[in-house]
Specification:
Blueprint: H1 3-17, H2 23-34, H3 39-56, H4 61-68, H5 85-96, H6 100-110, H7 113-123, H8 136-148, H9 154-168, H10 172-182, H11 192-205, H12 218-223, H13 226-246, H14 250-260, H15 265-269, E1 282-285, H16 289-295, E2 300-306, E3 310-316, E4 322-325, H17 337-346, E5 354-362, H18 373-376, E6 393-403, E7 406-407, H19 413-423, E8 431-433, E9 436-440, H20 444-456, E10 461-466, H21 479-482, H22 486-490, H23 496-506, E11 516-524, E12 534-543, E13 552-560, E14 567-573, H24 579-588, E15 596-597, E16 603-604, E17 611-613, E18 619-622, E19 625-629, E20 644-648, E21 651-655, H25 667-689
The structure holds adenosine-5'-triphosphate (ATP).
The site of adenosine-5'-triphosphate has 12 residues, from strand 1 and strand 2.
């Protein structure tokens, strides 16, 4: 792989096209990214692509970023392509002259719609009129037209655009990626972080004309020592990632970055904003209470009930306009009109604008009892009328990130919590604070009692949050304090500067958007012998035996590998399902329906299930422990070269309605849990050997 040769190749390619950058250029990058599983090579490919665009056609950078991240707008914009599989099939038949049987044969052979388009285009007979080359901007505009066309005749309009795209695709690879884009399964491993890193690095090498920042000349950059280059990269990446975590919209980030470069000002111009959801801070896993107490030795912390509901970020501006966002940044304002109507009452004196966060939980209004998560899922997502609400909810607030025009992210948690609890007004059973106690490591009995009281009221366990900032220098850190959080441990980067930053942050009680640090810990109650659960994707099934003959049982589940885009089978499950669930599963994946597909090339599994499911759901699963497996390919290469990982005693818990398959457990995370389990086994052995 020679990135610089590729850059030259692309540059000359683009030069011959002139004007707007061609879609062929983007396709070339996709092909290269798809050909490797190396994150470094994928980043290099994207950096080269972006550099060429920045210099030659800066206006194509933003659409290229959207296309490479397989989206057209941020999640809270609620714009969706909404194309069914049948629409793609119809277009493939019409444009490439296939009949039903021909199309079916290709699908059976390849599984992936993009691969089918590739083959069909290759076989297409010679076309007299050579279409004008597709442009990056043009393809992006076509997608937004598909997504925004509404009302009568919109289906026909969408179909026409899809057909035109396929007709104009010049080579078989362009067809493949147009179709993969349309079915929203690009499979080039360009996840969010990869793109943010590529953007940060690209502007260290190139700037558009008229930009207000400078880049160092290439010969100077080439002379930098490895450490210096790493530091340069890391600083730029941290700024770009921090900006995106506070303001996750490429439409704002990309133009601003191209204008001012990766400078601190980016965080001011493109930082925390009203009615734009920030990416939430995340909790790190712990084995149990004693693991948590060891991790937080010497620190004051707050233990809070971990409610089983839906996370909500509530924004309210000075004019009283309210927006509510989910954990995954989708807009939920229409789902919770009852919460919107509470805002004027909870906003205490002196509060003009704010962003607060809490867990929405279904409650019984009569006695205030918490209801299970399943009850909450019965609420419609849209057009909920206040008078017709059947599922009552209470918002249990736990953090305040913005107040009266000022971001509070850098303030210690104790201070943010104090502001929240003193300035807002509690309305019992509608809006209140998460139940909590303050403690330290020596209070193990009180913590255990609190944990028990949480599980008694059907909470999932507790969240434990460091209350104060305490900055120590590296020599004062205990072993546990310097332990890296999972996020840093899984990242392959060994940048020293990053490690230091992570260590320091692990001790702070600031609100860190999009980070999973040791200052927020979750302790879950045991579902089985493992306290962790996994979010897996059902991908296939077998005909059941005996009583279960009319259903699919067992069901094959997979984790996702974000590097390759594949789904890796991890276990078969036949436990935890009710008969009602089995039936609804059979209805959803009925033979002959579009949810049942031929063997997909992107699912890794050597066995032969009776039926393959179109991946579309995420199921939360309990299990006893993780085992090395010769049969299942999940996380292969991460813990062993020959063997993958599987689960012992997998048990279905619930459908994660709030998660899309892109948010299912990754193979990296599974490997991390396996390593933790191994450490635990070693610890246990050592403990047992003590006299
Ligand atoms: P994650 O959000 O950590 O990626 P997840 O979606 O599976 O994983 P959990 O591991 O169950 O969620 O734990 C974190 C979630 O717990 C939060 O996103 C939030 O919705 C919920 N939660 C409930 N009570 C609290 C609380 N007191 N503080 C913070 N989060 C809470």
């Amino acid at each position: 792989f020679d990135a610089s040769r590729w850059a030259t190749e692309l540059a000359s390619h683009w030069a011959t096209q002139g004007g707007d950058a061609s879609y062929a250029l983007l396709t070339r990058a996709f092909v290269l990214a798809n050909a490797t599983t190396s994150r470094i090579k994928i980043v290099d490919t994207l950096v080269n692509l972006l550099r060429i665009l920045i210099q030659g056609d800066p206006s194509s950078v933003l659409p290229a970023v959207w296309l490479a991240t397989n989206s057209i707008s941020p999640p809270y914009d609620e714009i969706e392509l909404g194309l069914g599989g049948s629409s793609i099939s119809k277009a493939l038949k019409k444009i490439y002259g296939l009949d039903n049987a021909g199309l079916k044969t290709l699908y059976n052979k390849h599984g992936d719609a993009g691969d089918v388009a590739f083959e069909a285009k290759k076989r297409q007979s010679f076309t007299l009129v050579k279409p004008k080359p597709l442009k990056i901007k043009g393809v992006y505009q076509s997608l937004t037209k598909i997504a925004t066309s509404k009302g009568t005749g919109s289906q026909e309009t969408k179909q026409r655009i899809v057909e035109k795209l396929l007709q104009d695709a010049r080579g078989a690879e362009e067809s493949r990626y147009i179709v993969r884009t349309l079915v929203q399964n690009l499979r080039i491993g360009a996840v969010k972080t990869t793109m943010l890193i590529a953007l940060a690095r690209a502007v260290l090498y190139s700037r558009p004309e008229g930009a207000s920042f400078e880049v160092r000349p290439p010969h100077e950059l080439a002379r930098l020592k490895k450490d210096e280059l790493t530091e340069l990269y890391t600083n730029a990446e941290e700024i770009v990632k921090a900006s995106y975590a506070r303001h996750p919209d490429y439409n704002d980030l990309v133009p601003c970055l191209l204008e001012i470069g990766p400078t601190d000002e980016l965080l001011i111009r493109c930082g925390l904003s009203m009615h734009i959801p920030l990416r939430p801070m995340l909790g790190s896993i712990t084995r149990d209470l004693s693991d948590m107490l060891t991790k937080l030795q010497g620190r004051a912390f707050s233990c809070e009930y971990k409610y089983d509901g839906q996370r909500a970020q509530v924004h309210c501006d000075e004019q009283g306009k309210v927006s509510i966002f989910s954990r995954h940044l989708e807009t939920m304002t229409e789902k919770y009109p009852d919460l919107v109507s509470l805002v004027p009452e909870i906003r205490g004196e002196g509060v003009s604008s704010f962003i607060l966060e809490g867990e929405v939980v279904a409650v019984d209004r009569e006695n205030g009892d918490l209801q299970p998560f399943q009850t909450l899922t019965n609420r419609a997502k849209k057009n909920v009328e206040i008078g017709e609400i059947k599922v009552n909810v209470c918002l249990f607030a736990f953090d305040l990130m913005y107040l009266n025009g000022e971001a509070l992210l850098e303030r210690p948690f104790r201070e943010r919590r104090e502001l929240l609890r003193s300035l807002f007004v509690e309305i019992p059973r509608h809006f209140t604070w998460v139940k909590s106690i303050d403690a330290q490591s020596s209070d193990s009995e009180a913590v255990l009692e609190f944990f028990k009281s949480a599980t008694d009221v059907k909470c999932e366990g507790i969240m434990v949050k460091v209350l104060d900032n305490e900055i120590k220098n590296d020599t004062q850190l205990t072993k546990d304090e310097i332990e890296q959080p999972p996020e840093a441990a899984s990242a392959k980067s060994s940048a020293k500067t990053k490690e230091k930053g992570t260590r320091r942050k692990a001790l702070l009680s600031t609100y860190e958007p999009d980070k999973r640090l040791e200052s927020w810990l979750k302790v879950k109650k045991d579902y089985s012998t493992s306290s962790e659960t996994l979010d897996l994707i059902p991908v296939a099934g077998w005909h059941g035996q005996g009583r279960k003959a009319k259903w699919w049982s067992p069901i094959l589940l997979a984790v996702r590998n974000p590097e390759t885009g594949s789904l890796e089978a991890v276990t078969k499950c036949m436990s935890g399902f009710t008969d009602k669930f089995y039936q609804s599963n059979k209805d959803r994946y009925a033979e002959g329906s579009t949810n049942v597909i031929s063997r997909p090339s992107y699912v890794e599994y050597h066995g032969s299930p009776d039926v393959w499911f179109e991946p579309q759901e995420v199921w939360e699963m309990a299990f006893a422990d993780i085992t090395l497996s010769p049969t299942y390919p999940a996380a292969i290469g991460l813990v062993s070269e020959e063997r993958g990982l599987s689960l012992r005693f997998p048990r279905f818990l619930k459908v994660r309605e709030d998660k899309s398959i892109d948010e299912a457990t990754t193979s990296d995370y599974l490997a991390l849990l396996w390593r933790k389990q191994m450490e635990r086994a070693v610890d246990g052995k050592e403990a047992n050997q003590d006299p």
